[in-house]
Amino acid sequence: MNNTRRVISSATARRVGRQLSEPAAPPGHGECLYRRLSGVKATGGSIRKMLNEYVMEGNVVLNYDLWRCLKELRKLRKNTVCDDYDVECVEIMEWMGVRKINYSLTDHARRLDLISKTKGIAAAENYMSNLPPSAKNKFSYGALLNCYCVETMEDKALVELFRKMEKSGFISNAFPFANLMTMYMKMGKSENVPVLVQGMIKRNVYPSTYVYNVLMQSYASLNDIPGVERVLAEIEILDESKCNWTIYSNLATIYMKAGLLEKATVALRKVECELKPGPREAYHFLLSLYAGIGQLSHVNRVWKTLNEVYPTCNNMSYLVILQALSKLDDFEGMRKCFKEWESSHSYHDIRFRNVVIGAYLRHGMDKEAKLLSEDTEKRFKGPFVKSREEFTFFFLESHRTDLALSYLDDNVFEAKDGGWHPPPSLVNAFLNCFEVEKDVPSAERLLNILKPFR
């Protein structure tokens, strides 16, 4: 029997709250737990109640399995438009705390990060202050620093916490610097990034691949392409181990945004040279970037390679190829992929339909778009704001302002509980249309619809 992990067994009520040595998990044990956890949200149930029922049925809950479930639930969050999975993750961790399941050195950091996302910075700070001294380590401090950086709280991040971490000897790797660099990029202070990198080197902390990527982006935001290329040369000569496919995909993106399409193409070929084979994400980047520079033949070639490397194509891969083909106006190719996806996947994602609806509208096929939209509203619970935005722009461009206002009104009604705001480009499109047509009544109707956002 392996005694290195903690478990909870509930053959009796007394045993539920105690730490026990871990028995061997039955086949499919973790998978069964994950299926039940991931289904709680859809049924409107309680995580705590589900876990209690699970152990009272005589099942064993392993620390390892819970963390694996948390990891998978967070992946779901990344691939959906809803953040409820973060709330569920917090509830799982709270349940673990109540049941006295031991936390590792990094577990408090994970929980702190989730608390910040779901309950706010103040709650995260309170959690940190209540941790025992042994849990106030470089991981938990690093998580709090990341929270401050995400919220662009420069003074708290740099003046207070970073300096405190440095005095405590917690600045031992590139992560704290990477957080600060990302914060400055978000704040539009990209000139601070090279200074931070110099500070790293003075402290004998060597840049990670991520740090090099942000450094390249900082020079690009300053319109310093030679600076970007100097960083690349330095990596290739002095730190070749950090020069992976992400460096070249980042370089390709920079060249593409600068209008240097030939250089972008060369960088993308270097990405492909790094894949032997590579992760799905790398092929997704290639598909998107080749579409960005208008290279349909390369998109089709990379899609073929992706299917050869990963014969079972997942939802994300299909979404990326649909978006790429839509961007390139390969309508028939996109429609073929959409039908292929619908026939082979039981889990349907509303984003796929939004891509196709947008493509229909760009081709003036509003009847087909409407039929697909109506079918989508029958199959899904929403939100439908993205597809309605597409319809709103379409009807504005064709000067059917009544229909455009109707779709906008529907979006505002759906967003009454928050989560969506009309983009400035949409509001400006309405105002320009009304100004050209001198349509005062419609302008007044627009202002009335947008009252909740004043």
UniProtKB/TrEMBL annotation:
GO molecular function annotations of the record: mRNA binding
One Gene Ontology CC term in the entry: mitochondrion
Segments crossing the lipid bilayer: none
Pfam families found in the cross-reference section: PPR_3
Domain of life: Eukaryota
SUPFAM superfamilies with a match to the protein in the record: TPR-like
InterPro entries: PPR_rpt (IPR002885), TPR-like_helical_dom_sf (IPR011990)
Keywords linked to the UniProt accession: Repeat
Keyword Hydrolase attached: no
Gene3D superfamilies: Tetratricopeptide repeat domain (1.25.40.10)
PPR repeats, residue ranges: 137-172
Alphabetical list of PANTHER family matching this protein: OS01G0301000 PROTEIN, OS12G0527900 PROTEIN
Family, similarity comment: Belongs to the PPR family. P subfamily.
Listed name of the protein: Pentatricopeptide repeat-containing protein
